[in-house]
Structure of HEAT repeat domain-containing protein:
Amino acid sequence: MDMEVDSMGLVRLIGIFLPLFFIMSAFGQELMNTEEMIIKYRSQLQSMDEDTRISALVGLRKIGARNGQVEEILISALKDKSGYVSVLAAEALSRENKAIKHALPVLIKALESPLDPAFKTGRYVKDWKRVAAGAIGNYGSDAAPAVPALKKALKHTDYNVRGYAAMSLGNIGLASKSAMPDLQKAISMEKIDGVKKIMIEALSKLKVL
């Protein structure tokens, strides 16, 4: 009888701890895979090929800048000789609200640049200004220094840039109230319904502040 009770108890314990073992094993494997991927992407960022470096940033973006190693790598990538790579690094940091003092100047510079490199080379469309306009708003009110650049971007020839600029102005909030006349003018001139809707929503946000 005692043996029977012990056996049943053992079965229950196995039933409890076996799933936990598999969960912990999977978690450990995931951590190991993440470390391996970070090492791989760090190495790829040393490549002379721009597309390879862009692919590395796409991978790091998926892991996220909450990971301290990834944040460190992304901050270093802000100095990449390719403007598009540096903008992508800044965008990845902005998604986690990280390293604003390093990333925001890169995004503003891209948005204000006289160059307008929305073109495709290799595997990627390098639309710097669209990426920058959208990423700035991820920093919320802390992105106030970008308001002048965003106001100018409301007049951009690319409707994607105009839309993201309006969205970021709305996300920045109170510090963007000076952009209300710019948004009103942009709304009156906008031909793309979807972009006009975004502009109206941004203006509505600012009106209630």
